[in-house]
Amino acid sequence: MKIALAKINQTAGNIEKNLLNISKYISDAEKAKCDLIVFPEFAICGGYCGDLLLNEDFIEENIKAADKIIKESKIPVICGTVTKDGKGGLLNSVSLFYGEVSGLAGAKDNLNDSAFNDMKYFKNYNIVNIVKLANKNILFVSIDNITAIKETIKTIFKETTVKPDIVFVIGCSPYYYGKIEEFKQCFKELAVENKADFSYLNMLGGNDGYVFDGLAIYADKNGNFKLTDQSFEERLIIADTDGENVKTEQNDRNKELYDALVIGLKDYMVKNKFKKCALGVSGGIDSALVAAIAVDAIGAENVLGVLMPSKYTSKESIDCALELCKNLNIQSKTVPINDVYNTYINQLTPLFEGKPKDLTEENLQARIRSNILMALSNKFGYFILCTCNKSEDAVGYSTLYGDATGGYSVIGDLLKKDVYALSKYRNTISNVIPEFIITRPPTAELRDNQKDSDSLPEYDILDDILIKILEEKKTYSQIIKSGVKKEVLDKVWKLLSTSEYKRRQSPLGTRVSKTAFSRDITLPMSNGYKWK
Amino acid sequence: MKIALAKINQTAGNIEKNLLNISKYISDAEKAKCDLIVFPEFAICGGYCGDLLLNEDFIEENIKAADKIIKESKIPVICGTVTKDGKGGLLNSVSLFYGEVSGLAGAKDNLNDSAFNDMKYFKNYNIVNIVKLANKNILFVSIDNITAIKETIKTIFKETTVKPDIVFVIGCSPYYYGKIEEFKQCFKELAVENKADFSYLNMLGGNDGYVFDGLAIYADKNGNFKLTDQSFEERLIIADTDGENVKTEQNDRNKELYDALVIGLKDYMVKNKFKKCALGVSGGIDSALVAAIAVDAIGAENVLGVLMPSKYTSKESIDCALELCKNLNIQSKTVPINDVYNTYINQLTPLFEGKPKDLTEENLQARIRSNILMALSNKFGYFILCTCNKSEDAVGYSTLYGDATGGYSVIGDLLKKDVYALSKYRNTISNVIPEFIITRPPTAELRDNQKDSDSLPEYDILDDILIKILEEKKTYSQIIKSGVKKEVLDKVWKLLSTSEYKRRQSPLGTRVSKTAFSRDITLPMSNGYKWK
């Protein structure tokens, strides 16, 4: 049996375009003489559609799209759809499109496990239709996470009288680091336990900062992988149950994360019709990595690096920034901020009532830089990239309306240690980030001789604490016992718990972890908790 | 029977402070010789706590707090709590605290209906313990919305063998306009249908932009209200089943909305320990209303109005703004933006490659004003108020990092028509908003002779379309049939669907509708849908 799995990259809401993409892959699968083609969850509407799912016209258009596929296709098509249950309820469903036997093959009934607030839009509805195709009993389900997959499969295999030979699980579930290995393991186990073939197909591509990994798996009933494809590339892949095994794997953590960040940025820009982007290049590592990702996402010719030196900017920083632009082959422009800064200060000094210099003057510099970038965005249509990282966002070490601005936060879900790791990884492909950028101590250069470590713990200590709080959910005493100093933990918690307001106004960016701020981690902004 | 209902205003996470408040009201209820005191959902931890609910230490502190109440109280206490189910699961529960008979009185099992992502934290757990107190069978449940309340009550009354004499529903559910009447009607009906007394008590106060209305209802089994209290004021109220009826009602839509906006702002500032606020006063109606709300929330002596005129600012605007400040008795400062603006333009002109003036220059002015306000915030600790309204937010008629900035969006969930209505309402209390501000045509004054209606439909048309899309979920053809011009609808939809990125970075503010942006209405930012 030859099964085509379409790893497709759809656009939320653009049914017309998405249908063209589906048609193309159906045609390819027919040419390849496949017995069946499978598309992921939300293949027609794209994911994630949000409140478009409350729009009657949009739903009607989804339903009409099905007719078109039925008419066109010569082989059975399995496709993630949005359908109605006849009582006005909306279903997140799996449809079989194949002439007269077309119909509902399944509907999602574990909605609460979705990242996308599925319960707001859909009804839970347990439909199990085992479909007979090419003499096999095939079960199709749409599920997001491993716990739900295991539970659902257990229930179905217990309750159904016809034992499925093959189970297809389709998803539109967001990537996070670690997901791919978890899913591979899960499908292998399911196959062996249930003595059936198990296949998984996820949506591909970036949408509003979520990255769908396009993971495709086909494990036979002995737990052998006939197919695994974990590239972030749109394509048709074929699982031939009687043919050779096919594997496209990545086993490098840094490469996997880097590729996810590239597709996350690329798809956000493409799907929002931005052609060019600009970012402030400071000579620091964050903007260096973001510039490299941008170049890999949309090409050097579409990236502008803007240097905005102040009187606190060192010559090293300027040299580093220029060298980076040269290495990446991107255009650079320099806009000094001193004159604007001085004019602000002249204007504001009478209001400041003789108060000494403080954060005010530092934040002002960051805000001037943002204004300059936004002016370039307004005038030329540049999409502005935010260069904040997750460690900074965690402790509010950024300026609201200053560096924490832009259309997209490219590395906002990356801890500082991963900023280093990915920069080094990128340099193994081609040496674009100057060595000095990687080895110099981090500094915001908003006052003389400033270093990040003046205000924050060293990043290795900070990242270690953040992992314990955000990922491992350790208790206070567990963290102290692990060797963290009380005053350091108290400071980090205080900064973390009082910076939520900043994170809520920060640009959205690519999620690569299970603990992305504003998505997975949401603390109250009015937070009276004293952790101790 | 004398039942004390404690309309309390708790702080998310501050268990210590919340416990003191609970103790105070228990003591008051004891003094008033009540038979029972009832507290709302999340009375100990405050709402909404978000990921604090994933913190083991925080949960332990919640559980310990119960012991303290049990020890102190001499009358039965019913209280919304967070407890554990013995298998590591967390319950959003109702506890009875009364010496040795203390225990779980109920747990929420309709979590998906919560505004607060309850399913992320809690397990669904259907517990029905009918408690015998003062010779009455009493049922306690914690539920958020009317559909869920009706369903749950129906199930319980069908399944339980002991018929409850009184049902208490406690909540921590957010206010929206219309909620109070819906709930009163619902409780009246429930009482009559089930031939039992029905009482409701909601949390009070603002938290992160949600306002809990503190609604208290006691309807006897004949559907007569023994008690209704819909003031936004913290207090103990007593439903005496043998005594007089007590009613505190508001039947003025504008007053209700205005009061909700005042408590929303006040509580956000108080709970985040801000004492003073500042806002740009432009001479327009939005900033005028926000200034009035601020004065009513935290006192005139704590509000600063900042005039930031440019060369496009009319004398009328300056006069209006100064008159407003005078009427409200707030301090004003004037910071002209021309010098800073000109310096930016000098710096940027070489980069602009001779391109003509456009939105760039307009946005820059708005951003300079934001920078000035933020500088005052940094230097003196002013909390900055955002003055954007919902009609503007809907169509992106604001400048990102410009006027769409600040710690709190005071009227961000108010359509322009309601900005007018509430301004007029406020003037009926004392005449603070100059008449000319209310009657003049809206203008952003970012270029010569600019009017909002140059870029947007007139606000009455715009608001009408927004209501049809956001609240009534009308189809395209229904809206056209209602008399809206196709080109106007297309323009509004285009602006609405392409401005989501701006709204996601906007400050949080008080929600007063069921259709607040970023909370209730979430469109995809990469939105390919062509509505037609």
Task: Give an overview of the whole structure.
Two copies of one chain form a homodimer. Chain A is an alpha/beta fold and 532 residues long. The first copy, chain A, has two domains: 2-251, Nitrilase/N-carbamoyl-D-aminoacid amidohydrolase (4-Layer Sandwich); 257-450, 3-Layer(aba) Sandwich (Rossmann fold), CATH 3.40.50.620. In chain A, 40% of the residues lie in helices and 19% in strands. The first copy, chain A, contains 18 helices and 21 strands. Chain A has helices at residues 15-31, 56-72, 118-121, 146-159, 179-194, 253-271, 285-298, 315-328, 338-348, 359-380, 390-395, 416-429, 435-439, 452-455, 459-471, 476-481, 486-498, 500-504, and strands at residues 2-7, 36-38, 77-84, 90-97, 103-107, 127-128, 131-133, 136-142, 166-171, 197-202, 204-207, 210-213, 216-219, 225-229, 235-240, 246-248, 277-280, 303-307, 331-334, 383-386, 408-409. In chain A, the strands form four sheets. A seven-stranded mixed beta sheet of chain A has the order 6-5-4-3-2-1-15, covered by helices on one side. The longest helix of chain A is centred in the last third of the chain and has 22 residues, at 359-380. The first copy, chain A, is elongated. The mean pLDDT of chain A is 95. At the A-B interface, helix 1, helix 2, helix 6, helix 9 and helix 10 of A face helix 1, helix 2, helix 6, helix 9 and helix 10 of B.
